[in-house]
Write a structure and sequence with these properties.
alpha+beta, four-stranded antiparallel sheet
């Protein structure tokens, strides 16, 4: 198992540590050092790092960055809110905005709270803000749920966790053109009501060390998705 870890502090250090223990061939490099790695060698390694780092590798491999799958059409009825596409300047200050094309343009947030300088004509997703009380990440690989992790390490009542699993199973069954690996982020807004927060593609993803998602399963799914991307 061959990995390529981004050098420096990009967050999710536990994932980085696990990769170094789990993989038998680990290379640590900066983005500029990636340019000096032979093409076939680079192609053989699964990257662990930021969106920007991974996009740099894709450019080096002459591969296109996958399109966004944040709100798949098949799953929109699980959102519980209208999500529209528009330009940043058209969103109200109290609406939630998220980049539609470039994930690194800014972090999704209530428009009035966005700290980055954003092009007024940047294409974004716009929706009402939903205050989620708890959130789970459900890891899906090849049509099967591999594990679930909360965004924190607090306990969850078993009935609510089962409801999250059941909702995720429904979404897996309804999404017809899903990639081989992805995550479903599901949020609880109270009174046991669950909504789809967003979907994340399984590259530059991030492994959460709590819950029942094991690192070997995580490695298997991100490696499979990476091979799907660079072979496409």
């Amino acid at each position: 198992m061959k990995s390529l870890i981004q050098a420096g502090d990009y967050g999710l250090q536990e994932e980085k540590r696990r990769v170094q223990v789990y993989c038998d061939d680990v290379l640590v490099a900066t983005a500029s050092e990636v340019d000096r790695i032979a093409f076939e060698e680079l192609k053989s390694r699964t990257p662990i790092g930021s969106v920007e780092f991974t996009e740099h590798i894709l450019a080096r491999l002459a591969r296109t960055v996958p399109g966004q799958i944040t709100y798949p059409d098949d799953l929109r009825h699980f959102l519980g809110r209208e999500v529209r596409t528009g330009v940043f300047s058209n969103a109200d200050g109290n609406e939630f905005v998220k980049p539609r094309i470039s994930t690194k343009e800014f972090n999704g947030a209530i428009k009035a709270a966005v700290s980055e300088r954003v092009d007024p004509f940047a294409i974004v997703y716009i929706s009402e803000f939903v205050p989620f009380r708890e959130e789970w990440r459900v890891y899906v690989y090849d049509g099967a749920i591999m594990g679930m992790s909360r965004y924190d390490n607090f306990d969850t009542e078993p009935q609510l966790e089962r409801a999250v699993f059941d909702m995720a199973m429904d979404m897996v069954g309804e999404w017809r053109d899903a990639p081989i690996a992805y995550t479903l982020d599901i949020g609880h807004i109270g009174d046991r009501k669950l909504l789809l927060v967003e979907v994340n593609d399984a590259w530059a993803l991030g492994w959460y060390p709590w819950g029942d998602m094991t690192f070997p399963n995580y490695w298997e799914m991100i490696t499979a998705r990476w091979q799907q991307i660079i072979s496409g």
